[in-house]
Amino acid sequence: MVLVVHGSPQWASGSSDYLVPPANPQKFGDFMGFLAARYAGRVQSWEIWNEPDEVAFWHGSTPGPAAYAPLLTASYGPIKAADPGAQVVAGPLTGNNFKFVEGLYALGAGNSFDAVGVHTDTACLVKGPSQFYFEPDGRIGRFSFLGFREVHAVMAAHGDGGKPITMSELGWSATTTRCARGGNAGLKDAGVGETNQARYLEQAYHCLAAYPYMTTGIWFNERDVGAADTELNRYGLIRWDATKRPSWDSLQTISIYGDQMTSSCGDLTPPTIKILEPTAVTRFDRGLYVAASASDSGSKLSSVHFYLNGKKFIGFAARNDQTVSFTLKDTSAVPYGVSTLKVRAVDKAGNTAIKELAITRVDSRELPRQTTRISLHLSGSQSLKTVRGRLTVPGTELMPTGKLMVRWQRYSRGRWVNRYARSKIGAAPFSYVQKISTPGRWRVLARYDGSGPFSRAQAVESLRVR
């Protein structure tokens, strides 16, 4: 049995509002000791106040760890003295309030609880257990079902990874009305309907089963608490008219046969990243070509972003295993020497991966003469041709500076005549698609006139258009 004790009489708090805590926390602690002695062996878990982290249940002062910690510490000793085997729970908290837990540890209250309690049936919750968002600091959101992972991470960081987390309220309203409370009042649905309520119940207990430290999951609540179709009235497994919802059958099945689901609970795995160019031995000066791909097996890839020395210079929406590339044409502001290239990939669930590479900018004016080479490859249909190529410095990982010119030429009256032309950055691979409708002998001429220490180069590929 789990009992939550909250509220205080006027003689203890000085207020007619029972949600104002007592002026002397020890009075509350003594009362908890009395209750623990009276119900020793019959109550397994004591929750100290209900959702003390929010103004809905904590009045008279600003709710927070500093206000709550004295009440918790005053209760722990008397309860354990009366019933050593009883569990003392910090909270339960509103959502997975890991920052509140951090505050308790900072105040030295880590030795005053055996478990942390959370309530995930927050106002107008409509997202399922596997759906989540991230806080600005990258942690799973407090009001996500899976946010209990962050509560546990805080506990583990303070040596309490072995302590359990009790989810003494979880649930989804079956109402089909609009939200009437909280920050989303009037902006979203208030519930998920009966079918999704049952489905989310199954998913929730499946999720909890994957984490050994999640020892308690109590559905809120058994029966609707009113006839009107409102959010708070429609959390029940049993309707107001005493008929059973599908969620009743779902919970009954779990209680008899256990968790039958095999799918993963939430995509919490970040993407994997491959930096294709540059490499760790690449040297560049004026112009830097970058290319990468990423993939995610869970929720699929969303975007890929590039940074140089901490400053973002380009980002792309991207699919799994799609190569995205970019040429940073002006690198004059990049200092000579070692710089850090960072690639950040984000999947559709919001998971982020980062891969970094040290690259080197050199002053090309100080380099000896470098021999360059152009490679060309032609492909395409009879009338739509593509030439792909690359200017390189064989035997090195240098990225040449300057530009090269790519020309489509047709042989006419004994000479090659330029028909189409385009300049390309020397540091990057290039492609040039051209529609050719005139029959005859054609060729692609790529010419690099050299830049600094990089020598001239030229390449030709011929074709016949019929």
Automatic annotation (TrEMBL):
Name of the protein in its database record: Unannotated protein
Database matches in SUPFAM superfamilies: (Trans)glycosidases (SSF51445)
Cleavable signal peptide: none
Gene Ontology MF term list: hydrolase activity, hydrolyzing O-glycosyl compounds
Pfam families in the record: Big_7
